[in-house]
Amino acid sequence: MSPGGTHTLGDLTVSRMGYGAMRLSGPGIWGPPSDRDAALVVLREAVELGVTHIDTSDFYGPHTTNELIREALHPYADSLHLVTKVGAKRTPDKGWPAALSREELTSAVHDNLRNLGVDVLDVVNLRLAGEHGVFPIPVSVAEPFEVLAELQQQGLIRHLGLSHVSAEQVKEARSIAPVVCVQNEYNVANRANDGLLDALAAINIPFVPYFPLGGFTPLQSGVLDDCARRVDATPMQVALAWLLQRSPNMLLIPGTSSVSHLRENIAAAELELPKDVIADLDALA
Q1: Of 19, 60, 186, 210, which residue is the catalytic one?
Q2: Of 164, 53, 7, which is closest to residue 21 (Cα–Cα)?
Q3: Catalytic-residue membership of 60
Q4: What is the arithmetic mean of pLDDT over 97-115?
C-alpha cells in the first residue's frame, strides 16, 4: 500500500504521504542524532509502512541525514525515490547561507551523490535562501537553475524541482528545464501559497509543503483541536489529512525522529475528513 495513494514526480511514482528526514540530525539540524540506532529504525519503518518518497539534503547535519539514509536503506528498492535539495550550506555558527554559485551547486550535487551512495539523484530541488529567513527572494533563478540543468544533461540528476520560490520564479525555471515539484511552506494555518498551489495543480506539478505541521513551532488551534475530537484523531493527523484533501497534487513529507509519531503521521493518510470539518479548517485562514 502507498499511504495517501500515489502521484508522479516526472516519470517516478511516489506515495503521496512521504517522509522528511531533516529531523534525524541533531538539535538545530546540526550534527548526529542522540540515538543513531533509533534514527535508522525510523527510516526502515517508513519504508515498511509504504513510504516511497523521502526528502533530504546533504546540508542537514551537514551530511548526517544522507549518511543515515544510506546506512539504513542502501541498496535502495527500485520503488524508493530520494529527493534532495541544494542552494544552501551550513557554517560553523549553524547558519544557512545561500550557496548558489556554479562551484557550490556542483559540489553539493556530488556530495549528495556520494553520501547517498547513488550514481544519479532522482530529484534535486534548487532552494533559494533569503536573508533572515524571508522567502521567496525576488531574484532570477536562471543562473543557478541552468547549472542544475547542465548537471541533469550530464546524467547526474533525473529531475529538477524548486524550493522557496514564487510563481514568477517557477515560470522562469520552466523556460530552462522541466520542473517536477515545488517545495514551499504551507499548512492549515499558513496559506500564503494558495495561489501557487492551485496554479501548479492546473498543470499537474506536485506541491510539497514543508513545515506541514508548523515546523519548529507546532500548529496550535482550538479549532484544530475541536475538529480532531469530532473525527477521533489527533490534531496533527487532522492537519495532515486536510492537506491531502486540499489538492490532488499535494505530496506530504512530515518529519519525525520517533517511530510512534511516524506511525501516527502515516495513519493520517487514511483519515477522511467530513465536509463540515473541512469547512471549519478552511476558515482558519
Answers
A1: 60
A2: 53
A3: yes
A4: 96
